[in-house]
Design goal:
By secondary structure, this protein is mainly alpha-helical. It contains 13 helices and no strands.
């Protein structure tokens, strides 16, 4: 028998997708998406005015940010979102505290939450236009409505599910109702609070872009929705794609910022376990 026949077969290198690092997997999927996009625009014969190739979109994206148009639009939208988020969270905290000290307020908050939380905030656009007109106040009203109810629901759930032993200890040592809320209930409800903020931020981000698209104005300066609307109006499709990519990237960035805050606070303090996705990063 020959030496080649006796030799053991060489081990085959098996590359398992799941064994690759998460960042590498996502980078490869992004490159596959760009390659498929480029192949479609190159070989399908589609008009670049309708579906521009990735290089043209990339140039529009760079030009938009370097000229300051996208940066200014993003800053305007983020300022409105931050203001609306602060108002919504403040109102949610007030509603939750009131519902804790008054049964009437608890019933009212539960009624409004059950009615308005499932309602898409875009449905509030007509009434916002009637009440406030075509201005920035209407935008803030709609976004506050998008943020307020999910945060209120999360805070209320957090307050209701606090360990009863902690509540009893607070009562036994004679804490006032205000100190019971600030020293016992609110700290214990932090995981639910963070979940509510993440949900409210996601709803608020989607709502403000949709509202700007419909309103077309956001005060004296234009936001990202208005940027998209202008690009569509003048058939600058590459700028429409650049705006959509910017909206997506900013949304991802906001989620990463909140995830980092969550890891440095409630996860580090042992109030919540780190998710498997965050662990593999």
């Amino acid at each position: 028998m020959s030496m080649a026949t006796d030799a053991a077969p060489a081990p085959r290198l098996k590359l398992r997708w799941a064994a690759l690092p998460v960042a590498l997997r996502r980078a490869l999927q992004f490159l596959m998406l760009i390659a498929a996009w480029e192949a479609y625009t190159r070989f399908s014969g589609v008009d670049p005015l309708i579906f521009p190739p990735p290089l043209q979109v990339g140039q529009a994206l760079v030009e938009g940010w370097t000229s300051g148009r996208l940066a200014q639009a993003t800053l305007t939208t983020l300022q409105l979102l931050a203001l609306s988020l602060a108002i919504g969270m403040g109102l949610a905290l007030i509603f939750t505290v009131l519902s804790r000290v008054s049964t009437f307020a608890d019933d009212a908050v539960e009624l409004f939450t059950s009615m308005l939380n499932p309602l898409p905030s875009v449905a509030m656009l007509p009434i916002a236009l009637i009440w406030f007109g075509l201005n920035v106040n209407a935008l803030i009203f709609v976004v506050v409505n998008a943020v307020l109810w999910p945060v209120t629901l999360a805070l209320s759930t957090g307050f209701r599910t606090v360990n009863q032993t902690l509540v009893n200890v607070g009562r036994n040592i004679g804490l006032s109702w205000w100190r019971m809320i600030t020293d016992v209930l609110f700290p214990a409800a932090l995981p639910h609070t963070m979940t509510g903020i993440k949900t409210g931020l996601g709803y608020g981000w989607r709502t403000i872009i949709a509202a700007e698209l419909v309103f077309g104005v956001s005060g004296a300066k234009s936001g990202l929705g208005n940027f998209l609307n202008d690009a569509r109006y003048f058939l600058r499709t590459d700028e429409v794609f650049a705006g959509i990519i910017s909206v997506a990237l900013i949304g991802i960035t906001l989620e990463l910022v909140l995830a980092a805050i969550e890891r440095r606070t409630i996860v580090r303090w042992g109030m919540k376990q780190q998710s498997s996705t965050q662990t593999t990063r």
